Amino acid sequence: MEMIAERGLDRLTMAALGREVGMSSGHLVYYFKTKDELLLQTLQWSEEQLGAQRRAALARRIPARERLEALVELYLPDGHRDPHWALWLEVWNRSQSGDDEVRARQLELELSWHRDLVALLVEGMAKGEFATVDADRFATRTRALLDGFGTHLVVGLPGVDRPLALSHVRDHFDESLTPGKG
Question: Which residues form a coiled coil (predicted)?
């Protein structure tokens, strides 16, 4: 994951990766067949790690808003060249090629975040912690907001940092989810 983030998939060689992990490039090709498959499996592994953290954060017995903010903290990159997000950038770039299998696998990974966000919104509304919104639509918009800020953070655009992005997201939640507001 770190080598893909550091070099990008196009500049990564199986030989260099093999040296890094103590395997021959032939073994890597045997297990992964292509660099695209290596990328997808690395992304799936990364998302499994984040998914476990996300499920733990969502299972905590704290108000829904605090869990929502914990989910956002996990979603957004830590900053420029965040390895988890570098994988996503590579996959998004490669999904333009038209490979339906790649897009289906990518969609399933993205939908795990979406489903958890929708479930949390529904729970928060049911408990009166959140204003009533269309949970699916709100989750779609929120993920688009997070993806936009996340992309800016991971590529290192000047003027955008993690605290600023988190502040904008909190404002979005305050304006949209505060009961009796709007």
Answer: none
Does residue 122 contact residue 135 with C-beta atoms inside 8 Å? Answer: yes
Distances, alpha carbon 15 to alpha carbons 18, 19, 22, 26, in Å: 5, 6, 10, 8
> Nearest to residue 176, comparing CAs of 135, 126, 118?
135
Q: Does 1 have pLDDT greater than 70?
A: no
**Tens digits of per-residue pLDDT, 123-150?**
999 999 999 999 999 999 999 999 999 9
CATH of the domain at 89: 1.10.357.10
Tally the domains of the chain: 1
Measured between alpha carbons, how far is residue 148 from residues 77, 85, 101, 163, 169 in Å?
11, 12, 25, 15, 11
DSSP state, residue 97 = G
Residue 36 belongs to a domain: no
Q: Is residue 119 part of a domain?
A: yes
Query: The domain containing residue 56 runs over which residues?
Result: 42-177
